[in-house]
Amino acid sequence: MAQTQTQPQQLDFTPIQQTEEIQGISRPSLSYWQDAWIRLKTNRRALISLYIIIGLLLFTFLGPLVWQVDPAQQDVNQISQAPFADRTVTLVKDYTPWNPTVYPQNGIEWEDTPNTEIVRLKWSPLEGADQYRIYRNVYPIGPERSLGLPLFEISADQTWSEDRLDLKPSTYYYTVVALDGQGRETDLYHEIEVELTRAITLTEARNRGLVAQGENAEIGTQFKYDLHPLGTDYLGRDMLARLMHGARVSLFIGFFAPLLYVLFGVVYGSTAGFLGGATDQVLMRSADFVVALPFLLFMILFKIVFGIGPGESGITPMLIAMVVLLWPSTARLVRGQILQIREEGYISASTLLGAKTNYLIMRHMIPNTMGVILVTVTFAVPSAIFTEAFLSFIGMGVAPPTPSWGSMCNEGIKTMLSTPHELIFPALLISITVLAFNLLGDGLRDALDARMRNRE
Is the Cβ–Cβ distance between 381 and 373 less than 8 Å? Predict the structure, then answer.
């Protein structure tokens, strides 16, 4: 059967309209790091964490230049002072011996206004008392008869007493209990609530510079003690100054130790991944052996080797223990990246052109693993800070009087019920720092991972 062929006609085709309009590039060319920075800025949590870390660095290094207070200086008149507490102090006369001759008929009374310099008590005699025992409590006396701290015992002939033992501006509850001839407490007692005001003697005010030498200040004049924005610790040291100087120790360990063991892990893992074969097996089995070593045990051994005894700071053994024992995780991660990069075409091309091993590792492989390395560092820094805090907390790291956040937590936990600010502030800084670095590490991982870019 013959087939007929039809010739194409001009109307069967639609001519393409040629235009001279050139379509421009909608997005400028960006480098790898520029693109990573743009992606990081879109991550609000990571960006806020970056600003927090910058603020912590300014707090650490520029803070002491603004708040020039010696972290070791003690203010004995403001021990365990709460943040922004009342600093008003009243001038009182210097101490003079007291021997009252007039006694009230009922109850217990004090002479003058009770203050933190002295509380003077006098009471009417209790029938049948052979001695008196005086107690002091910071809580009201309940039916359980919890009288508090026994101060002293005096004979029944003396119905007055003075209290000058570690007085603080607070409310005290004194109890005078009658004792029988055998020294046993009877049911007879006097009790009273006494509210103390902060006071300073004239001599001490002159020594502290509140009153000029030779100046006759009027008794009852009020002054202001030195300002401590975050309060003081149990020795009267400024908390803000100690937090600033303690941050230098904590952040030094937190930055310096990870840089050392991450750098060693990068070199170790790169060598193992690139050489491969038996060398890779030997190197990675050695890394597995290091992982099995107990960190705390080696920390103790290093302290013994360096001759650091109890109560002494062990910063050097801590750094050495971290560098020696914490690099295997970085080495494993970098080895995996190198094994993947080694199979790329540009590595084979460089090898054919005569590139040596050191050149391939330093020029091609490590730069292509910088994203993973940076993320590893950001996660290693909070781990090192927490390790320092833990070791200092148990007394094996930084020891007093050298301040660090961990050692301050160790000191603050002893008085956390009465003065919680001594524990809250260093613990809060540790938590904020660790959280900020972790969130920044998450953001860097998302910004530097090429696979995450492909998913968008």
Answer: no
| Measured distance CA(321)–CA(298) in Å, rounded | 7
State phi, psi for 134 to the nearest 5 degrees: -110, 130
Q: What is the pLDDT of residue 313?
A: 73
Tokens of 388: 């320092």
What are 364-398's pLDDT values in tens digits?
777 778 778 888 888 888 888 888 888 888 777 78
Record the tokens describing residue 403, joined without a space: 């301040």
Rounded Cα distance between 224 and 240, Å, is 19
| CA dihedral angle for residue 25, residue 31, residue 33, residue 38, rounded to 10 degrees | -10
253 neighbors 402 (Cβ within 8 angstroms): no
Q: Which positions ≥6 away from 143 have C-beta within 8 Å?
A: none
What is this structure's pTM? 0.76
Structure tokens at 163: 């209290």
Q: What is the bridge-based pairing of β-strands 88-92 and 131-137?
A: unpaired
Instruction: Give the model confidence (pLDDT) of 300-348 as tens digits.
Output: 888 888 887 766 777 888 888 888 999 998 899 888 888 888 888 888 8
Cα dihedral 164, 158, 132, 181 sign: positive
Burial of 143 per CB tally in 10 Å (0-12, 13-18, 19+): exposed
The closest alpha carbon to 177, from 194, 157, 195, 152, belongs to 152
Handedness of CA 195, 152, 138, 420 (dihedral sign): positive
Name beta bridge partners: 172: 194
Structure tokens at 386: 């927490």
Range with the poorest average pLDDT among 36-40, 42-46, 258-262, 409-413? 36-40
Give the strand pairing for 222-224 and 199-201. Answer: unpaired
Q: ω into residue 401 within 30 of 0, thus cis?
A: yes
Confidence of residue 454 (pLDDT cuts 50, 70, 90): very low
Q: Bridge partners of 152?
A: 134
CA distance 29 to 264: 35
Strands 199-201 and 88-92: parallel
